[in-house]
Specification:
By secondary structure, the chain is of the alpha+beta class. It folds into 2 domains: 257 residues, no CATH class; 84 residues, no CATH class. The protein is 17% helix and 34% strand. The protein contains 6 helices and 28 strands. Strands 3, 4, 7, 10, 16, 17, 20, 21 and 22 form a 9-stranded antiparallel sheet that branches. It is globular, with a radius of gyration of 22 Å. The termini are far apart. The model has no long low-confidence stretch (mean pLDDT 96).
C-alpha cells in the first residue's frame, strides 16, 4: 500500500480524510492489523507538552523617535539579547529575572506576551549619529511590536532518560525533585503519543513539515541541537535522548494554554510548549511505527546522584510501568512521576486532529530530509 501527500491533502480538502490520534490507532491496529489499518487511515496525529528549555522568541520592538540602537534590553526584568540589530532581540526561556525573589524568567515573558499582557521594556545603547537616543523605558505588548515569532533550537526530544538519586540528600534538578536513596524516579515523555517516537527514523518529518506549535501553526526549521542518531535502540526505537527538532512559529497565532512559563524549584525557569506533528500514512511501515504502545517504548534510568556526564544506568523501564505510579528496579521500589503532561499531549493531538478533519490544516512535503546520521560532540 502506497499513498502520496497530494492524495492525502486532496482528501483533507474534501473533508474525507480519516484521521486518528496515535493513541487511537493502537487499538485499531490491534483489532484489524497493520495492513487494514494502513488502508483505512490517512493521518495519525501526535502530541507532547512539557518543559522545553531550549526555546525562545525573536522580537522586533519597533523604532522610537528619536531612534535607538538597543544594546542592553530588559523585558519585565529579564535580560534579552541585544547583539542582533537596532531593535531586534531574542528572549530565551531559561533567562531569569534580576529582581529579588526570582521565579520568573524568559518563558514567563513569552507566556505573558501570548496572553496579551503589557511588558515593561527598559533598554539602553551607546548612542550613534544614526541612533541618537541612549535609553528608553516603556511598555510593549504582542500587538504593539512589529514582529514576534518563536524559534526553539531544541524541542520534542525523541525520548528522554528517567532520573533517580542514589545519595542521602534530596536533589533539585531539571528533572524535578529527586528523593534520597532511590525513593523516586521522574521521567519526561508522552510515550506512545510523542511525535518522534511514532516516526523514529524521521521518514515523514523534515525541514518544512507543518506542525502544531504552542496552540498555533509552526514548522520544523532544522534538525534540533544535540541531534543524535547513535542512541541505543530496542526494536528500532531509541531508549534515550536521540533526535530533536528546531521549531519556528508565529507567536501571534499561539494560545496561552499551550505556552506556559515554568519555575522549576531549585533549578531555574523554562517554558512548557505544546508540540504536535501529523504523520501521513504513506505505507504500511509508517502505520506499524505509529501503532507503538507504551509497553513497547523503553527508557534508561540514570543515577543523577553522580555528578558526571556519564552517569551510571541502573536499569531500563517501559512507559506503561512508569505511568503505573510505582516500579521496582535494581532492588529498589520507586514512586514514579512525569514532568510531561499526558493530559495535554492528548489535547494537542486531538486539537491537531480536529484541524485536519475540518480542512484547517493540510500537510507539507519536507523540503529537506533530516540527517540519517549525527552524533553529539563532547566539550573538552
Amino acid at each position: 500500500m502506497k499513498r502520496t501527500y497530494d492524495e492525502i491533502n486532496d482528501k483533507i480538502k474534501k473533508r474525507k480524510a480519516v484521521v486518528l490520534t496515535a493513541e487511537e490507532v493502537i487499538e485499531l491496529v490491534k483489532d484489524k492489523g497493520v495492513k487494514k489499518a494502513a488502508e483505512e487511515v490517512d493521518v495519525v496525529t501526535t502530541g507532547t507538552f512539557g518543559a522545553m528549555c531550549s526555546s525562545g522568541a525573536f522580537l522586533n520592538l519597533g523604532h522610537s523617535d528619536p531612534p535607538i540602537r538597543m544594546a542592553n534590553i530588559s523585558l519585565n526584568g529579564v535580560q534579552a539579547y541585544g547583539g542582533i540589530a537596532a531593535v531586534d532581540t531574542y528572549i530565551g526561556a531559561t533567562q531569569m529575572t534580576d529582581r529579588k525573589g526570582g521565579g520568573y524568567g524568559g518563558g514567563h515573558v513569552i507566556e505573558d506576551l501570548v496572553a496579551g499582557k503589557k511588558i515593561h521594556l527598559v533598554a539602553s545603547g551607546p548612542g550613534t549619529d544614526c541612533y541618537t537616543r541612549k535609553s528608553i523605558e516603556t511598555t510593549i505588548s504582542l500587538n504593539s511590536i512589529n514582529d514576534a515569532y518563536m524559534y526553539n533550537p531544541r524541542n520534542a526530544y525523541q525520548n528522554y532518560t528517567a532520573a533517580t538519586n542514589s545519595t542521602d540528600k534530596t536533589l533539585q534538578t531539571y528533572m524535578g525533585k529527586l528523593l534520597p536513596n532511590f525513593r523516586n524516579v521522574t521521567y519526561s515523555s508522552s510515550g506512545q503519543l510523542s511525535p518522534l517516537l511514532n516516526d523514529p527514523h524521521l521518514d515523514t518529518i523534515g525541514v518544512g513539515t507543518r506542525i502544531f506549535l504552542g496552540g498555533g501553526e509552526g514548522y520544523v526549521a532544522w534538525a534540533g541541537t544535540q541531534f543524535n542518531t547513535k542512541t541505543p535502540e530496542i526494536d528500532g526505537v531509541p531508549i534515550g535522548g536521540a533526535r530533536t527538532l528546531a521549531l519556528i512559529g508565529n507567536l501571534r497565532g499561539m494560545e496561552r494554554e499551550f505556552v506556559r512559563g515554568l519555575d522549576i524549584f531549585g533549578y531555574g525557569t523554562s517554558l512548557a510548549v505544546g508540540v504536535g506533528v501529523p504523520i501521513p500514512i504513506l505505507s504500511e511501515n509508517v502505520m506499524k511505527r505509529c501503532a507503538i504502545s507504551d509497553e513497547e517504548i523503553f527508557t534508561q534510568i540514570f543515577d543523577y546522584g553522580v555528578s558526571s556526564k556519564t552517569r551510571p544506568v541502573i536499569g531500563k523501564v517501559n512507559y506503561a510501568d512508569l505511568r503505573s505510579g510505582k516500579i521496582e528496579c535494581d532492588g529498589h521500589v520507586m514512586r514514579t512521576s512525569s514532568l510531561s503532561s499526558y493530559k495535554y499531549a492528548r489535547k494537542v493531538s486531538g486539537k491537531l486532529k480536529e484541524w485536519i478533519e475540518s480542512d484547517k490544516f493540510t500537510l507539507t512535503v519536507p523540503s529537506i530530509p533530516l540527517p540519517k546520521e549525527g552524533t553529539l560532540k563532547e566539550l573538552r
